[in-house]
Amino acid sequence: MNRATPRLRALAALPFVLALAVHLLLFARWRDELPAELATHFSAGGEADGWTGPTAYVLVGTALLLGLAAGWTALVRRRYLWAAWATAGFAGGLLVQLLRANRVDAFEAVVFAPAMDLGVALVVAVAAGAAGWALTALVPEEPAREPFDGPGDGPRLPLAAGEAVGWSKDTGSRALTVLAVLALAAAPVTLLVATWPGALLGLLGLVIGVPGLALARVRVTVDRHGLTVRSALVPRPRVRVPLDGVEGASVREIDAIADFGGWGYRVRAHRTGVVLRSGEALVVRRGSGREFAVTVPDARTAAALLNALVERHGKV
């Protein structure tokens, strides 16, 4: 399985550190030229319609860059290093342009040009992305990945005739739990204090938080009924693959991003999965030819038991 090396993580964090340093240095240099309330939101015509105090502005800008840095540092892969740099360039460039536009000139009216500021930020993003692409040469090539193919002849547990046996284990994602809790905590506050269309963000928090929390921890069970994956908190959602629908099971090392494009319940061509992390996963080939994967510790025992149960079921 491909994991980010310390060097790759450092290179992914570097552009955000640079962007934050430039932003804070310029803020300190221009502090006396900034108004008591900075314009931070603009209408389609370029008129300022939202303001933030300097202290709050710095805190929000710092939190934004640090949050993006944490995300990219945790998730980056070698081939996406350029995207981390482009993201830092765009966010940092936009923050600097916002500061520049808010500087008060005693002899000239302050004129905001959001479209131009976005254009400048995009140019900075392209330049930063190119730098990130060049720095990819400093990171070793990732080893070739094992194809995500069928289970084939997976492991088996010896079962006596009529023996009742089962396997169950809980597994979860701390990151998904934290994100879901934050979304749910922010939703009621946003719904209460925000005006339309800002209240949509509150509804979005509920839409993301509720299913996210339900899938943040799941229970994986293998028994005479087949494979069952359900939320550890509530009875639903639930995925069940009966023994009649299983052709075989095996263990795979999967990468959440490369193989499934993220976390949660994932749907890809010819396969679905409940993916809460990268690493060991139980992979089941269904009778339809599609595959179902669930990331869970001790997946080998689960695969061996499921294969044995399928084999015994076929002899009944």
Give me the secondary-structure category: alpha+beta
Side-by-side strand order of the widest sheet: 7-10-11-9-8
Radius of gyration: 25 Å
Q: Which strand-content bin applies to the residues?
A: 15-25%
**Terminal CA distance:** 39 Å
Indicate the mean pLDDT.
80
SSE string, helix = H, strand = E?
Answer: HEEHHHEHHEEEEHEEEEH
Profile the largest sheet.
5 strands, mixed
Number of strands: 11
What is this structure's SSE topology?
Layout (H helix, E strand, L loop, with lengths): L5 H25 L7 E5 L5 E5 L1 H22 L5 H22 L11 H22 L31 E6 L1 H20 L5 H17 L1 E7 L2 E6 L6 E5 L3 E9 L1 H5 L3 E5 L2 E5 L3 E8 L4 E5 L3 H17 L1
Parallel strand pairs: 9-11
Antiparallel strand pairs: 1-2, 3-4, 4-5, 5-6, 7-10, 8-9, 10-11
Helix pairs in contact: 1-2, 1-3, 2-3, 3-4, 5-6
Characterize the structure shown.
- It is built from eight helices and eleven strands.
- Strands 7-10-11-9-8 form a five-stranded mixed sheet.
- The two termini are 39 Å apart.
Features:
316 residues; alpha+beta; five-stranded mixed beta sheet; four-stranded antiparallel beta sheet; 47% helix
